[in-house]
Amino acid sequence: AKAAGGNRYEIADAEADARAITRHSLTMALPMALDRGEFFIEYQPLVHLGDGSVRGAEALVRWLHPQHGVLGPDRFIPLAEDTGLIVPLGRWVLEQSVRQAREWREKERAGDYTGPLRVNVNLSPCQLTHPRLVQDTVDILERAGVEPGALCLEVTESALIGADDEVLKPLRRLAEMGVDIALDDFGTGYSNLANLRRLPVSILKLDRSFTRGMQHFPADPVDQKIVEGIVSLAHSLDLAVTVEGVETGHQAEQLRVMGCDTAQGWYYARPGPPDRLHELALVDAS
Ligand code: C2E
Ligand code: CA
Ligand code: CA
Ligand code: CA
């Protein structure tokens, strides 16, 4: 559909499109989309709260649909999970992201960027239980010549709740190799905090809902207490805390004071092309 006029028309048009695109048609188009190279990845910087330096980025996949334009992952990841396409799609995202990390590291070595820049990649539960996860990851790292420490795999808290040792084994092997494992959307899954010790994770990614509680001054006192509690527990277990959804400097400052280690959000940068990270991570010439 063509957008002829101003924003109003475009918005109405997008809504009509959204209704017209059925789950069914998107599901049918997914396998071809991978073959045709319609997916692309945007990267959102991860910023060290202590000194404001860029430490890496999270890879977020998008689908440039030939008729419907750019679709966000919430539109198609659930469909890919239902059909099993998430396995080859997830492998593609991992491969692209690791190659990107190599490129960043090369710039670093050349002295153009502050380092070390790392890449975070989301893993869906189906990938977690796939028998080739460890071998695929090892192969991808080796082919790209990237050390495991440059990769962080993000797994949601809900995927690991009640996970038995069989499910945790591959993650544990990856962690032993030096790949970081982050527990994503932490605080939404009602997991037993004592359970954390059992998981091979080194980073807690606090869900955006907590960051929202820091939007106003004074911050929501309950959220504040919860975040402080999680941070002190995490640090006592030697886990780093990353916060997502930071939209204002005020939130960033509060979360820094509360001891959070790393932040991600629109305040720093929206997800974007990999070169944007280069700009943000430019070595300060002064
Ligand atoms: P997530 O892992 O929790 O990723 C963070 C989401 O928050 C991203 O949405 C990001 O664009 C958005 N975000 C970042 N900063 C802000 C902010 O300051 N304010 C607000 N309101 N939002 C912010 P996105 O890109 O739409 O991704 C949605 C979800 O899709 C991700 O949530 C992740 O669970 C999933 N996803 C994305 N890429 C992949 C992938 O390659 N594989 C898998 N399995 N899942 C993916
Ligand atoms: Ca994530
Ligand atoms: Ca998250
Ligand atoms: Ca999320």
UniProtKB/TrEMBL annotation:
Residues 23-285 form the EAL domain. Signal peptide: none annotated. This is Cyclic Di-GMP phosphodiesterase RmdA. The gene is rmdA.
